[in-house]
Amino acid sequence: MSVRQAMLALLEQGPKYGYQLRAEFEQRTGSTWPLNIGQVYTTLARLERDGLVEADAADVQGHVVYRATPRGRDEAATWFTTPVPRDQPPPRDELAIKLAIAVTLPGVDVGQVIQQQRTATMTALQDYTRLKRSGRAARPTEPEDLAWSLVVDSLVFTCEAELRWLDHCEARLRRVAAERAAAPDQTTSAPTTSAPTTQAPSSRENR
Questions:
Q1: DSSP for residue 34
Q2: What is d(CA 28, CA 67) in angstroms, rounded to the nearest whole number?
Q3: What predicted TM-score, i.e. pTM, was given to this entire model?
Q4: What is the DSSP string of 41-69?
Q5: Distance of alpha carbon 122 from alpha carbon 25, whole angstroms
Q6: Residues 78-124: pLDDT tens digits?
Q7: pLDDT at position 140
Q8: d(CA 5, CA 154)
Q9: How many helical (H) and strand (E) elements, i.e. helices and strands, does the chain have?
Q10: Mean of the per-residue pLDDT values for the chain?
Q11: Per-residue b/e over 34-50, b at no fewer than 16 CB within 10 Å?
Q12: What is d(CA 166, CA 117) in angstroms, rounded to the nearest whole number?
């Protein structure tokens, strides 16, 4: 997540001090990615070092107000017009790493690992769906409310994609186990899998 560019974009709308930046960022994102004030001021210091923001004199309450420089406004504009790169090494995905390790180790019940994750992800999906149907995300009237509703949509879609991927993993593991069981000369052990104890409802049924 680019806090740097997000802060530049907010400063492009007018000068602000650190607490104002944090409040506006969290208002738009529903505090999904909370910022501590130390992170905000560290980022501001780096932006000032790089000539992207400049500090004004402190206001009557002692707040140092920052404004975007022309270079800073250019960087914010470039951020909006440049797709988020997908050709770089993706961020570490703990669930993918866990399953990748689990299928290579004897004695790990991969089916159980998948089922436990499915239950947790389904719970998260239900929580996000409730958020989507309630409060300011359900009936956005202000731009900040619409921003929050889009963040909630992203969280819902991420859960749905993860559930589909877990279904895919389970099907692949079962197919591999069946193929190996049908080949008596196969010496390599198949991953340990177990049937799910419950059938997870379709994600569409929870939206």
A1: -
A2: 20
A3: 0.75
A4: HHHHHHHHHTTSEEEEEE-TTSPEEEEE-
A5: 28
A6: 999 998 887 777 778 899 999 999 999 988 999 999 999 999 999 99
A7: 82
A8: 20
A9: 8, 2
A10: 86
A11: ebeeeebbebbeebeee
A12: 8
Q: Is the separation of the CB atoms in 89 and 99 below 8 Å? A: no
pLDDT band at residue 167 under the 50/70/90 scheme: very high
For 54-91, what is each residue's pLDDT tens digit?
998 887 888 899 999 999 999 999 999 998 887 777 77
Which tokens hold the place of 129?
A: 């769906």
AA letter at 12: E
Which pair of tokens denotes residue 207? 């939206």
Query: Residue type at 32?
Result: T
* Helix, coil or strand: residue 109: strand
Q: Are 95 and 162 in contact (CB under 8 A)?
A: yes
Q: What is the pLDDT of residue 188?
A: 53
Show the tokens assigned to 95: 């669930």
